[in-house]
Amino acid sequence: MSTLCRLQNLQITLGENAFGPFSFAIGPCERIAILGPSGAGKTTLLRLLSGDLRSHFGSYAFKGAAIETWPLRSLSRSRAVLPQSSDVAFGLMAHLVIGLGRIAIEGDIKRDAIIRHAARLSSCEHLLNRSFDTLSGGEKARIHFARVFAQLWDEQNSLILVDEPLASLDPGLQIELLERMKQYADERNHAIVAILHDINQAMHHFDRLILVKEGKIVGDHTAGMGAISDLADLYQIRLDVIERDGSPPLVFPRASLGLNTL
Q1: 137-151 and 171-188 are packed helices; what angle lies between their axes, rounded to 10 degrees?
Q2: How high is the pLDDT of residue 214?
Q3: Residues 83/163, Cβ–Cβ less than 8 Å
Q4: CA-CA distance, 162 to 192, in Å (whole number)?
Q5: Among candidates 87, 36, 46, 16, which has minimal Cα distance to 191?
Q6: Would you list the DSSP string of 66-121?
Q7: How far apart are the first and last CA of the chain?
Q8: Residues 6 or more apart from 140 whose CB is under 8 A from it?
Q9: Taken in order 253, 138, 248, 228, is the CA torsion positive or negative?
Q10: What is the pLDDT of residue 156?
């Protein structure tokens, strides 16, 4: 498998907190979920992958070139980021928010068509002429999904980075958007790296699980039964599991390992 990203001994210190060393590779079309308790360093790792943070030690090659050598305009054509929250200017229309994904392209004659295609894919075409600040949390999330889709719509072998993208969505829409993001990425050979809190979503919609705790990677597993023991240790919880032939296991978190249970 070719390599899209390669991190080697990547380390950074923010205030009194040290993160890393992070060493792993990402290939085109990979679906990677980053899991870990709050404050573990998941968002810091994602920001390093995006190039928004620069490491203090180690190296990060993106598409064969050191991340620090990438011009911002070129980087925006090869990776898209959906952070936990994204505020926009007061009163901006929804279709303009989606269009921000195309801002790095000069003379973008396909812009309007791609905005509409991206909105349709994220189930928000009916919101295009609404003011963004009048939308609900779930509607705003769909607009930002569309912005990411629009950004890399006509690219290949690129990287999608998302940080807890589903928190404000109802369960049905969560599943729908995960499936559509996978379809979108598969058609373009994009890799997806997503921070998640739901173990079952990670098991069912991603191929690989990277486990982060106290600023370090403590596990890197294929999604499946082989990850269960480390997941229980990661969160210090009990996990009941139902194995199913040909399908990912179903995982049921129970009480903390440190508590007495009835």
Answers
A1: 0
A2: 96
A3: yes
A4: 8
A5: 46
A6: EGGGS-HHHHHTTEEEE-S-----TT-BHHHHHHGGGTT-TT-TTHHHHHHHHHHH
A7: 48
A8: 86, 132, 168
A9: negative
A10: 96
- Both tokens of 184, joined, read 């979108």
Residue 139: count other Cβ atoms within 10 Å of its Cβ: 19
Report mean pLDDT in 10-residue bins for the chain, 262 residues. Answer: 90 95 96 95 96 95 96 94 75 92 91 97 96 90 94 96 82 88 96 95 95 97 94 94 86 69 40
SS3 192: strand
Structure-token match 């023991």, residue found: 229
DSSP 8-state symbol, 58: E
Pairing of strands 17-26, 159-163: unpaired
User: How many whole angstroms separate alpha carbon 254 and alpha carbon 242?
Assistant: 14
The pair of three-digit structure tokens given for residue 35, joined into one six-digit string: 């899991």
- pTM of the model as a whole: 0.92
- Dist CA 123 CA 121 (whole Å): 6
The DSSP H or E segment spanning 47 is helix 42-50
CA distance 93 to 72: 25
- Measured CA to CA, the distance from residue 137 to residue 51 in angstroms comes to 27
- Nearest alpha carbon to residue 35 among 46, 49, 50, 47: 46
**Cβ neighbours of residue 148 under 8 Å, at least 6 residues apart?**
80, 81, 82, 101, 160, 162
Q: What's the rounded Cα separation, in Å, for the pair 38 and 222?
A: 22
